[in-house]
């Protein structure tokens, strides 16, 4: 019985590994397509490498910069949005502000071409290109600011007591 159990476990491990490699290939292929759309095929795309059930690597070859890392996460998220039933993604300005302006423009274009929901927060919209500002203006659902433009009409971190 012990040999049968061992053989069954080996067969299961092989099936799981094959499935993981198949998913990894789909994800990496989709990330390449999206990355090529952002950089016209001139920059390395991020790579996901699943080593086992609890270890993976996620990197962009030859680029360990902060902007590249955040761009990689965005490309991964967009890939998951397209490849799965995931209904939304959310990206904060902390990620987006580290990415070069021309790439931000292309990322916003990718956001507008999905039929699923994408929520983003961007600071200092005036610092982006005219095209990027136009995409934002045409897509904005909620725009917050200070004082009366703050969420719920109140700046919560104000030192004034009400």
Judging by the overall fold, what is the CATH architecture? 3-Layer(aba) Sandwich
Q: For the report, how would you describe the main beta sheet?
A: 2 strands, antiparallel
> So what's the overall shape?
elongated
**Average pLDDT:** 89
The H/E string reads: HEEHEHHEH
| Number of discrete helical segments | 5
β content, as a range? 5-15%
Structural class: mainly alpha
CATH uppermost class: Alpha Beta
The CATH topology: Rossmann fold
Strand order of the largest sheet: 1-2
Termini Cα gap: 74 Å
For the secondary structure, the number of strands is 4
Give the full name of the CATH homologous superfamily: P-loop containing nucleotide triphosphate hydrolases
Given as residue ranges, the uncertain stretches (5+ residues, pLDDT < 50) are: none
Helix content: 40-55%
Our Rg estimate from Cα atoms comes to 21 Å
Number of domains: 1
